[in-house]
Amino acid sequence: xxxxxxxxxxITTVALPSIARQFQLTTAALDGVVVAYPVCxxxxxxxxxxxxxxxxxxxxxxxxxxxxxxxxxxxxxxxGLGQLVAYRAVQGLSAGVLFPASAAxxxxxxxxxxxxxxxxxxxIPQQIAPAAAPVLGGLLVDHLSWRWVFYVNLPVGLPAVxxxxxxxxxxxxxxxxxxxxPGLLLSAGALGTMMFGVCEGPNRxxxxxxxxxxxxxxxxxxxxxxxxxxxxxxxxxxxxxxxDRLFRDTNLLNLVGLIPIMGxxxxxxxxxxxxxxxxxxESGLTTFPEAFGVLLTVQITGALYVRxxxxxxxxxxxxxxxxTLVLLAGCDAxxxxxxxxxxxxxxxxxxxxxxxxxxxxxxxxxxRADLAQATMLNTVVRQTGGALAPAAVTTALVLGTPSGAAxxxxxxxxxxxxxxxxxxxAATAVFAFTMPDGPARAAARGGARGGARGGARGGARGGAxxxxxxxxPRRRRDRVDA
Length: 482
Fold this sequence. Notes:
Elements: H1 2-23, H2 31-55, H3 57-76, H4 81-109, H5 112-143, H6 148-151, H7 153-167, H8 181-204, H9 209-231, H10 245-275, H11 280-287, H12 289-308, H13 310-329, H14 337-351, H15 355-362, H16 371-400, H17 411-432, H18 438-444, H19 452-462
Helix pairs in contact: 1-5, 2-3, 2-4, 2-8, 2-16, 3-4, 3-7, 4-16, 5-11, 5-12, 5-15, 8-9, 8-16, 10-11, 10-13, 10-15, 10-16, 10-17, 12-13, 12-14, 13-14, 13-15, 13-17, 16-17
């Protein structure tokens, strides 16, 4: 279900030139089509946990997916730019609920030991989606029209809705605390304005009034949201979960570690198409081997997780990311495609060590009653890291381009951008080796989180029972099991 949402977030960029010709606009004028999606996605995420607790994961997931498919149909049928931007906003709102709801339903069903095995399969569509999006988008735009970039969601999503309605287990929800409206307004406003500022900063300039106002306003709203939520008896955002060191460290790794990972996936196609003059299809086929590297490594990672824990796997994976980015920084305008494909395969093999361990470990010490909240906070962090990635890349390219140069950055600017991402990955790898992973290893060996095994079976039939406790006493969660 999340596959189509991930693809849709990346595939639209490929269709922008065709959409501009259709509506007789410049590509730059279509900025709202791209920005509306992540901004509205970020604004919807804070409400997702409360919705899951109130109405149940299955119901929320299916409604969000239906909304996403309906807005996809409307996007494809849009008669003008205004309609397209509005429908893209609805897509973003639906995706903002879809991502955390699907994660909460998944991790609320399986025990920590089972989550490692399940994640080895769940990671496949999540990693193939961004790699396949440029290739699929190019084929649809070239052979059909830009409208099929949105219509393609329907033949994939409609069977998923039917299958989920018939076979997906879920609960009927419960009676959570009173809805925290001030928390929603402050957190949604903070995330939305900050996401707009981060997305628009590289295009409009970080000193432009609109970007500065949005970033400053976002910081102020975020500070107000944190203050209000920490003083509220039943907050919409349970920020106290970050007092758990393992949960906090894994989210910091996701926030910073996704910058070099997603940044390289954004920078690679730009280097191929602008610095080397390749076509969009050549670019997509050249970066696609990254997915094969991921698929190979996640199978090994899942088997090693129980034995060595997430700390060593994540640290070595990020070190591999840094080393591969240094290799890519050595590529120039004459580097062959197979050389770059080899580097992308190695890059995928390295990042395959990152996603499963950080996701599973982040929930290892979280009470079952807090799973929906924890997955929602994970989604906020991941979306923020993903948004920072292209902003960091574009800023590095601008700084590496001489003021009197042509519009396209020189090859040296791309090389410096790869090196900057490599430095971020190296610093994150050092931090990863300090992560406490004793509780994560204990949970993966079969220790139940909050009565996870019995509760998980019940959750699969009728939803997770609230009030579960972690298998480890809270006072020991921050200890490092040497």
